[in-house]
Specification:
Bound molecules: adenosine-5'-triphosphate, the ligand Cc1cn([C@H]2C[C@H](O)[C@@H](COP(=O)(O)O)O2)c(=O)[nH]c1=O
CATH superfamily of the largest domain: P-loop containing nucleotide triphosphate hydrolases
Enzyme class: transferase
Shape: globular
CATH topology of the largest domain: Rossmann fold
Distance between the termini: 24 Å
Largest sheet: 5 strands, parallel
EC number: 2.7.4.9
Number of strands: 5
CATH architecture of the largest domain: 3-Layer(aba) Sandwich
Number of domains: 2
Protein name: Thymidylate kinase
Strand content: 5-15%
Radius of gyration: 22 Å
Strand order of the largest sheet: 2-3-1-4-5
Organism: Bifidobacterium jacchi
Helix content: 40-55%
Family: Belongs to the thymidylate kinase family.
Length: 305
Amino acid sequence: MTGLFISFEGVDGVGKTTQVERLRDYLCGRGLTVRTTREPGGTPLGVALRRLLLEGVAKQSEDGEDGGRGEQSEARGNAQSNAQRNAQCATQSADIAHSADIAPRAEALIFAADRAQHVAEVIRPALRRGEVVVTDRYIDSSLAYQAGGRELTADEVRSLSMWATGDLLPDRTYLLDMDPRRSHARLDHSEDRMESAGDEFQRRTRQAFLDLAAADPARFVVVDAAESVDEVWQTIRADVDQLIADGYGDSRLRAAAGAIAAAATPAPVAAAPALASLIPNSADSADDAADPDDTDASESRERER
Ligand SMILES: Nc1ncnc2c1ncn2[C@@H]1O[C@H](COP(=O)(O)OP(=O)(O)OP(=O)(O)O)[C@@H](O)[C@H]1O
Ligand SMILES: Cc1cn([C@H]2C[C@H](O)[C@@H](COP(=O)(O)O)O2)c(=O)[nH]c1=O
């Protein structure tokens, strides 16, 4: 039996984390097991990768010093000898003291590595247990930021991510959309490496998200994130109620559809069985999500995009 896989997407500060928490509380309150998680950083490996991606790597001066960040001695030694080699061969090398910290392709690979670990360690096991997985960012962030923002090709980034995940896509993606200049103003921390990529980068990223949503209306729901927290939540809640009532997920979710209808309807006792009877029986289609290492697994979530 499969669980239900939901992702939240959007540019920085649109309110994803806020709505992930609302959805978790709502579904937990109805007796479902909900696993909330995020990218990058949903696993111990991911936490280390997140630090690299958001804080960047220490710049090396020509004499090999690491700018005071105290990197591990082995890494420093390697970089130092590179710096020395560069100094001897100045015509063929960039000045590493002033080079960009992470190249776009390297960045895409690190996000994909984070996602591969995340799917293997957290998402697939939870879906196999029939849980609801709610992730704060997933593959569409790579398509929007690394393809839209950094201007790698969408095909490259998609192939990389689909390989990393064994083609696992969410059942539903909520795209919280608003002008990044306004959403960034909501942030109460200093900008990280991605957030400080510039207005034009953020504009391209937002547009890429909107293009992705337009191309896959069955998976995406676009929500106006400039509305209040409550208004945004009401839109999501209405959709998730419908999603569950329509029969996504396993029998526990179908049972929950009755509970949700009961909570929302003044005459719940009569309404719940009627709703349950509308939900298709998915006993023969529901199975494990596809696993790159499990050739017998269902392909219900393996959708080519
Ligand atoms: N609809 C809203 N209206 C006004 N403020 C909001 C709204 N939603 C969230 N906020 C506030 O905006 C800030 C950012 O919200 P949140 O952390 O949920 O965004 P996010 O999209 O997860 O950000 P990030 O991309 O940096 O992880 C928080 O202070 C939050 O309370
Ligand atoms: C998954 C993913 C994320 N990003 C970017 C988007 C954000 O700027 C940061 C993550 O920070 P948050 O506070 O957790 O939102 O990383 C990306 O560029 N590509 C990705 O695949």
